[in-house]
Design a protein that fits this description.
Blueprint (H helix, E strand, L loop, with lengths): L2 E6 L3 H12 L4 E7 L2 H8 L6 E5 L7 H9 L6 E6 L5 H9 L3 E4 L4 H12 L7 H11 L21 H11 L4 H8 L3 H15 L4 H11 L11
Parallel strand pairs: 1-2, 1-3, 3-4, 4-5
Length: 226
């Protein structure tokens, strides 16, 4: 299956560089480009795309708002945020808006290609350690939960074990690390994560982490409230 890609960046040279790398892959095709978020939305109305590589800082309509609008549509393509600066606050906002992950623009080509394939298959591409650093830095920007109890009603759908797994995901642990911590198989942990996503109507584990911080299930520093 060919992955249909869209490049959204206001710098033509960057788009050209990415296009050259992607065009050399037998399973990828760049089917559209745009110089800002507004143009991207317009192009998507008439072009079928699987994965959008989205810059964040652009004129007219930035990548965060464009991501929010794209991801709000049913059957929307996946969005991979590309940022110049590690731990860019715009990247965090992009994750909250529905992006499936973020990467630096100077990432080695092999890592970029692997990330695109992972996003296309439904996985998130923010490494657990990066997720932890990202949210530890920006979680103070989230609305206060007003207490130690989770405020999201959706969390009541989770079993005790699922809530336990969600807490560890939010602390930045991988499935393998969670399996070791809870003395479970990695396949069992993956099943729990899948059920969490389904019950909470979330796209991927990145959104699980964001919800856990917003709800007060975890707080800055990666721990559960005392």
């Amino acid at each position: 299956m060919t992955i249909r890609l869209m490049l959204v960046d206001d710098q033509v040279l960057l788009r050209t560089g990415f296009r050259m790398v992607l065009a050399a892959q037998p399973d990828m095709e760049v089917v559209a480009e745009a110089g800002d978020g507004a143009e991207a939305l317009q192009v998507l109305r008439s072009t079928a795309v699987d994965v959008v590589l989205m810059d964040v800082r652009m004129p007219k309509l930035d990548g965060v708002e464009a991501t929010r609008r794209i991801c709000s549509e049913p059957g929307a393509p996946r969005v991979l945020i590309l940022t110049t600066f590690d731990l860019d606050e715009y990247a965090f906002s992009g994750l909250k808006a529905g992006a499936s992950g973020f990467m630096l623009k100077d990432v080695p080509p092999g890592e970029l290609l692997a990330a695109i394939r992972a996003v296309h298959s439904g996985d998130a591409v923010v490494a657990p350690s990066t997720t932890r650093r990202l949210l530890d830095r920006f979680s103070p920007m989230l609305p206060s939960s007003g207490g130690t109890q989770p405020q999201h009603k959706a969390l009541e759908r989770l079993t005790d074990r699922e809530r336990e797994v969600m807490l560890l995901v939010a602390q930045g642990l991988s499935n393998g690390e969670i399996a070791a911590r809870l003395v479970l198989s990695e396949a069992t942990v993956k099943t729990h994560v899948g059920r969490i996503l389904t019950k909470l109507e979330l796209r991927d584990r990145v959104q699980v982490v964001v919800l856990a911080y917003e709800s007060g299930l975890v707080r800055a520093g990666g721990g559960a409230p005392s």
